[in-house]
Amino acid sequence: MITQEGWYKLNTDEASKGNPSISGVGGILRDYLGRVIFAFQEPLGTNTKHQAELSTLHRGLEICRNKGFRNIWIETDAKEIIMFLSSPRQGAWNVQNTLQRIWNIQSQMECRISHIFREDNQAADFLANQACSAQQLCILHEDGRTGKVKGIVTLDSSGLPYIRFKN
After folding, report:
1. CA angle at residue 40 from 39 to 46, to 5 degrees?
2. Which residues form the RNase H type-1 domain (predicted)?
3. Which of 11, 75, 127, 157 has the greatest CB tally within 10 Å of its CB?
C-alpha cells in the first residue's frame, strides 16, 4: 500500500482466451489509504498478451491524466511490461506504438512502476475477465461498485485473498 498522501496506486491486468485471442483489460485506482477512486474495464478484441497488457496500462494512465491525477504508482503482474517500459526499442511495431503513447502520458505525470504477484492483483484480474464479454469501456466510480467487484476490493483492502473458481 502507498503511504504517501497525494499518490495513487493503479493496478492493471489483461485477460485473454489465448495468444492472440479475444482480450479484455481492467484496472483499479486507489488513494494512499486504499480507498477506491475508480475502476475500469474495456474489451479489446483480438490482441497478443503483450499488446493487451500495454493497452490496459495506457488506458489506465489516460483516465488518470484526464481526471487530473498526476502521482501514479503502477502495479502490474506482467514483468515483461516493466521490462518494455524501461528499455526503448523492444517489441514489434504495434508494441512500440503503444509504448510511445504510454511514455507520452508518463512525461506529464510522476510515475513509479513495480511488479505485483497475480494473487495480489485480483480486482484488476476480475475486471479484465469481465471485459472480455463487455461491449465498451466502462468506468466504475467508488459508489458504482457492486457485487463481486465490491467484495474483491473489500477482501483486498483487508489483506485477505479472493479465491477464483472456474465455472
Report:
1. 150
2. 4-133
3. 127
Cis status of the peptide bond prior to 88, with omega within 30 of 0: no
| CB contact set of 108 (below 8 Å; sequence gap of 6+) | 65, 70
Q: Which of 23, 125, 149 is nearest to 75 (CA)?
A: 125
Length of the chain: 167
Q: How far apart are the C-alpha atoms of 94 and 80, rounded to whole Å?
A: 15
Contact of 92 with 84, CB cutoff 8 Å: no
Pairwise CA distance, residues 74 & 10, whole Å: 5
Q: Average pLDDT of each block of 10 consecutive residues along the chain (167 residues)?
A: 81 83 88 88 85 91 96 92 78 79 94 86 86 82 59 62 52
- Phi, psi at 30, each rounded to 5°: -125, 155
C-alpha cell at 61: 494512465
In whole angstroms, give the CA distance from residue 3 to residue 33. 7
Contact criterion met (CB below 8 Å) for 21 and 46? yes
pTM, to two decimals = 0.82
